[in-house]
Design brief:
- The chain is of the alpha+beta class.
- The chain folds into 4 domains: 27-174, Immunoglobulin-like (Sandwich), CATH 2.60.40; 182-344, Immunoglobulin-like (Sandwich), CATH 2.60.40; 346-491, Immunoglobulins (Immunoglobulin-like, Sandwich); 504-546.
- Helices cover 15% and strands 33% of the residues.
- Helix 7 packs across helix 8.
- The longest helix has 22 residues, at 2-23.
- The radius of gyration is 42 Å and the shape is rod-shaped.
- It starts with a helix and ends with a helix.
Length: 547
Amino acid sequence: MMKKAIKKLLAALLAVAMLCAMAVPAFAVSNTHTLTINGTTSGHTYEAYQVFAGKLAENGVLSDITFGTGVDGAALLADTSLPSELRGKGSAAELASALVGKENDSDLLNEFAKVISTHLATVTGISAGNGTTYTISGLADGYYFIKDATTVNLPNGATYSRYMLNIVADASIAAKDTSVTLTKEIKHNESDTWGTVGDNQIGDTVYFRTISTVPNTKGYSSYTYEIHDKMDSQITSNVVSGNTNNVVAIHIGTAEGTELPSNYYTVTATGNDFTITVDVKAAQEANLVSAGDKLYTTFSGVLNENALVAPTGHQDNKAWLKYSNNPNDTSSTGETPESVVHDWTFQINVTKVDGTTKAALKGAQFVLSKNGNLKVADMLGENDTLTNTTDLIKLVKSGDTYTIARTSTDTTFVMTTPENGAISIKGLDDATEYYLYEIVAPSCYNSLTAPIKVFVTTRADADYSEAGHTLSEVKVTVNGSVSDTSFNVENNLGTTLPSTGGMGTTLFYVVGGGPVGGAQPLFCGGGGGLMVAAIVLLVTKKRMENK
């Protein structure tokens, strides 16, 4: 009997011991904990404040709840700005009980966190680390408010994290900051590709776009998202306030993606500067965009007569994004770095010379076209005046420089070589065939029988620097031969035929000396003075013979 009783007692004690062993983990006294914050950028400082204290079970349940040292509990309970579901509670336990079952990162919890931020007391722990991972150690059991307490300027594109609430048990959480970016691109018209560099003829429409990221606007009562753009004065912006000409368009996800309705953004322009303000928060709430999406914003300008020409100059277009960077302070904003693209245009220098002596020739008249099948005879009327300008390129004359016109009314089509035979033509595109037609040759010289084909080349984009703001080399192909941007156009003398009318022509030619040193024959191109001298000499000789 005694043995059976002892056995029963031992069995009972063993059962109790097993129950105790099973119960211990659920209510084990925890040591301190470490909170790890991931997915953030460098330069942050995080602070932890204990909102609720208690006993933490392994299953994450907090019991025996009181207010922690990190918050003024009485002030928190009395705050009428609490969400309605949390008002009127008489203790920390009642307030905590009202939070049970609420979804993590819900609007309710985010509003609760904002109210807590106004009643903070003693900071419990401060983060260590300066990279993408931060830790806060030595935290007792409890429910904590985590604040991004960064006081230094964040890197461009970075944001402050939203307030976070988390129960602590050696936990890892993700920071609620969200970085933004903006990249500027220009369309290369010949290849129909986008990048850092473009090139155009004066008067061409130049197409630009920005690619920016959509932030997570959760936790923000309002969100600033402004695309700023500034064009050089050599490019005339087509963007107008109100976007009444529909130049600006925004596509979601890809360049060909769904277009964002125009009521979600506004355009404000002052000259070449403009701002596109996008209501990304409203667009997210309408499920039109999601955090992390790309916005492709396109617009354009026109390369004008003030364009700087290669290789010494180019046109810049820069853009940046101004954005909200602190969900806890909507007045706080940051800016991305400027993203810059470059547009180039080109110049050729033409000198008219004698085909034999290479001496300069004045008085040659040229026109410019992209059509290589025109006929000079169809262009000219009486007295070799230009009457038909079909397919000819308008030019603006300044000295001996002719710039391709955009809209100027002070234009011409005809370029005339001066005494030194040299003219310059500015504002040409590369990889484009141009044709110089000689409509009038220098006096006594044969006209060219075919147009001169000119093709500017940079040997592809390899000649641009990676950033696109320098150019290593520009060449010109003239009638199939590679040349520098300065080249000669040759004319040959016409043929002087004999006359049956006596010796006058021969005499004039001899007295005039013919084409000396490659200059135009004096009796044709300005030799009238010597022709008169020859006549005087002949008359004098006759008189002497009569005597």
